[in-house]
From TrEMBL:
Binds 2 divalent metal cations per subunit. Has a high-affinity and a low affinity metal-binding site. The true nature of the physiological cofactor is under debate. The enzyme is active with cobalt, zinc, manganese or divalent iron ions. Most likely, methionine aminopeptidases function as mononuclear Fe(2+)-metalloproteases under physiological conditions, and the catalytically relevant metal-binding site has been assigned to the histidine-containing high-affinity site. Its EC number is 3.4.11.18. Its cofactor is Mn(2+); Fe(2+); Co(2+); Zn(2+). This is Methionine aminopeptidase 2. One of its GO terms (molecular function) is initiator methionyl aminopeptidase activity. The lineage of its organism: Eukaryota, Fungi, Dikarya, Basidiomycota, Agaricomycotina. It is an enzyme of class 3 (hydrolase). It comes from Marasmiellus scandens.
Amino acid sequence: MGSVADPTDESMREQISQEIDVDDNDDIEEVNNADPSGSAKKKKKKKKPKKKRVEQSDPPRIPLSKIYTDGNYPEGEIQPYKDDNVWRTTSEEKRYTERMVDQNPEETYQSIRKGGEVHRLVRQHARKHIRPGMSLKEIAENIEDGVRALVEENGLEAGIAFPTGLNLNHCAAHYSPKSLDTTVVSQGDVLKVDFGVHVKGRILDSAFTMNFEPTYDKLLEAVKAATDTGIREAGIDARLGEIAGAIQETMESYEVEVNGKVYPVKTIENLSGHLIKPYQIHGDKSILLVKNDDPRKMEEGEYYAVETFGSTGRGRIVEGGECSHFAKKVDAPKVPLRLTTAKSLLNTINKNFGTLAFTQRYLDRAGESKYILALNHLISQGIVEEYPPLFDQRGSMTAQFEHTILLRPTVKEVVSRGDDY
């Protein structure tokens, strides 16, 4: 075993202090075992090759878990609370509460953020490729294939949160194409695209509107501005009725000129944003879009879909057309089912969707066939609820923008915010 030379020896100090030339890529770990002649041996440590970050494909199909391997997903836009809640941003107590939630894998933040990143990537591709001449079915399947791949669809663990809504013109919501749908997007159409992602039942709900020529640009601008107003006014202790009043004021400050005629933009008064709960897209609190006296407040830890709808029509929707949105009721009664096919269908719904919304194409994909009678029986027994398409008056145009916000203890996080809206 060699010995280390005494550094008090003058000749040895000179030898050790001499500059040693090495390649820039070599790391000298230590100088050791200097022999009596004064030469020094150097032990070199090879650098480990850096791991390359996986790049997302186009169209997006690489699971996010392959990219964010540590399980930490990008935050959304952070907005401070207003007025009496500004103190929360710097509160040590609230920061501690937030850390405890963030570190619990069963809690909300990372699940919703993963959904937010899936939504951003999928819609980025969709917005780039949706164009006149495409069928609604093609658009829906492209979006859904992206969501399923990125979130790694796995029954009730992760997947699509509700049917992809592709709502044209005076149809404001709840239309999803069926397997044989041949509807094609036209140049003059106004298309609302509404889709959601869930991770462990935490639902990310976000929507946008596209048009392909400028006639209704102001309509889209009004609705986007109204949604941003709702987000700005939302927060812990904010009253739902007052948020609605601010949304309405912003929306109805716009007008649209079509063929020389001016139309005021009207808020669709019987649609609303909503509280989101685990595996439940519509919670028990709503953010109406017109001023009202609802005194209830938003609370810490809640998360909401802030969505607004504007119209050049009457500003009120009615149900119509064939239903494509269904969901098992959260409080579904336990009743005896006389149809064997209804029992089988309910088992499929429980296994694949639980209380999340679904459409006929999703039942087809789950292996169900000839299920119409069984589905109608579940509806008649109060187990499954229908959500038919919603229309303003024919000839009018409607638009929608929507974001999911998370009311964290310290700040408000707009989880679905992206560069596009």
